[in-house]
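FAQ

Q: What does a record look like?
A: Structure on top, sequence underneath. For example:
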């Protein structure tokens, strides 16, 4: 049994969106859809700081599926299409079972981490990109970050980990004190998104 998780160093993240592009390309994510997004914690528009009593302030927050230990989405799915893989701790989506009810989207407290394919997925190029074993994207199903499950199954790391130029991401088994992610959490203060919701996210933010 493994509990995969990620820690994102907010002091190192430069908001370059390399993780966004790596995710989109590796998983052949349809046009207009992003499983990982970078938000600016600052002014009213991206990459602009806000003025505070202590001076200007700006930070970046990378947001995707939080792969919760207690996922609200799993509890409401009527057909078991959304489930937590007990062998890895990864919250997955079975496209073949999904009936498009979008209950998981309504239950998830993390706005925008899931998308719904209203129409047949479209792409900027006329050929697939990324990993050959990525499941085919389908019409009328919900999709989200998979922690690059197809790569994890082969002993690799998520694509966002490899392309991050600032090395702001730490990955591994949260139950293994010797893993990269556990060591990162042990040495720093960190935060989780909406801990009051009781979902127990597996994504941490080093502050």
């Amino acid at each position: 049994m493994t509990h995969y998780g990620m820690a994102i160093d907010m002091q190192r993240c430069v908001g370059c969106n390399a993780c966004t592009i790596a995710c989109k390309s590796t998983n052949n994510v349809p046009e207009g859809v992003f499983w990982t997004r970078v938000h600016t914690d600052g002014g009213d528009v991206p990459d602009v700081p806000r003025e505070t009593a202590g001076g200007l302030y700006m930070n970046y927050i990378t947001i995707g599926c939080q792969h919760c230990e207690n996922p609200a989405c799993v509890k409401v799915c009527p057909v078991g299409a959304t489930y937590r893989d007990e062998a890895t701790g990864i919250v997955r989506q079975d496209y073949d079972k999904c009936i498009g009810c979008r209950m998981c989207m309504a239950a998830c407290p993390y706005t925008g981490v899931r998308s719904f394919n209203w129409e047949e997925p479209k792409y900027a190029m006329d050929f697939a990109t990324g990993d050959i074993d990525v499941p085919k994207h389908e019409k009328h199903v919900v999709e989200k970050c998979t922690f690059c499950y197809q790569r994890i199954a082969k002993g690799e790391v998520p694509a966002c980990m490899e392309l991050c130029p600032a090395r702001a991401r730490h990955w591994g088994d949260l139950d293994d004190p010797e893993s990269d992610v556990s060591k990162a959490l042990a040495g720093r203060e960190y935060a989780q998104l909406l801990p009051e919701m009781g979902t127990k996210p597996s994504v941490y933010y080093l502050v």
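Q: Is there anything notable about this one?
A: The longest helix spans residues 18-26.
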